[in-house]
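In response to reviewer comment 3 from the previous cycle, which asked for concrete evidence that the modeling workflow produces usable outputs, we include below a single protein chain processed end to end. The sequence was submitted unchanged, and the resulting structure tokens are shown without manual editing.
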Amino acid sequence: MRGAEFREFWEWWRGVLSAMASLNFPSTAGKKGDLIARVTASGVALGDAEMAESCVAQETFAVLDLQQRMADFFAEHAARQRQCCVRLAPDRFILRQLSRHALPASQLASAAELDLETQTPFSRDQVQVLPVMAQDQSSSYAIVKNSILQPVLDAIQNNGCRVSRI
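The workflow returned the following structure tokens.
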């Protein structure tokens, strides 16, 4: 058990140091090759990092069409890596801050579960709990309803893609 505790401490400490370094050396989050699925209240838009930087308006379509649109995209771009980043619009999740300080992963997960059960009206089977990496080193998590996130994740996985981050 000591090895697991040390590994968790090491991951936490590495995260603290990398966050401090990112304040001095900011970089763009995510990889250039990732496909980006933007989930909004009106639907989903597919794009990539180049499209996002050029501020080109992307077509929004229904979540039910995502699987086919991704299949069409990868048919056109066969050499591309099959990785996808899911970006949720601010109205698609609830952000809960637990502490002003960074917590190790297991403590953040335990605190988020406890906070979800005691401080929110959601039951665990209705939502996904996602830890959030904040620039200010605080410990937060996002609550996302399964009805919002699961259809998107299913469409991504059905196309043989891996979710790189949410």
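Residues 22-30 have pLDDT under 50 and may be disordered. We consider this sufficient to address the reviewer's concern, and the full set will be provided in the supplementary archive.
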